[in-house]
Amino acid sequence: MPRILAIDYGSKRIGLALSDETGTIASALPFVPADEKNKIIGLISDKEVGTVILGLPVGLSGEETKTAAAAREFGEWIGERARISVEYIDERFSTKEVLGEFAAMGKRASKNRGAVDSMVAQKMLMRYLETKK
Fold it and tell me: Which of 2, 74, 124, 129 is the most buried (most CB within 10 A)?
């Protein structure tokens, strides 16, 4: 079964998470600096990714935020370059949830922004995989 790659897009860092071959486990990967986004195309090929899910910034009202346009543009870029299906999912509350987990562990999120971004991608992927069961 092809793997699923989850992406938490940001203008500085891109958080990543990858499913296992069975589609049951979501693992955070090291983030990619936004100016090195081409590395993601290689990752998609190397890891035999069949689907990309991309977090879409949505406000509390359910309306897309201003940064959603940039995320959609990035998703189109990935889809064209990697010739892959990109699905957009609501990423609402994912960052808050991860920041809460960091605080509970006594870690400072401000010093671990890359890890936070990839953990957000992992949260999105876990939710996505749960809906596919």
Answer: 124
Structural domains of the chain, ranges and CATH numbers in brackets: 3-132 (3.30.420.140)
Contact 12, 42 (CB under 8 A): no
pLDDT value at residue 61: 77
Single-letter code of the amino acid located at 114 = G
pTM: 0.87
DSSP-assigned states of every residue in the chain: --EEEEEE--SSEEEEEEE-TTS--EEEEEEEEGGGTHHHHHHHHHTTEEEEEEEE-B-TTS-B-THHHHHHHHHHHHHHHHT-EEEEEE-TTHHHHHHHHHHHTT--GGG-HHHHHHHHHHHHHHHHHHHH-
CB atoms within 10 A of CB 14: 25
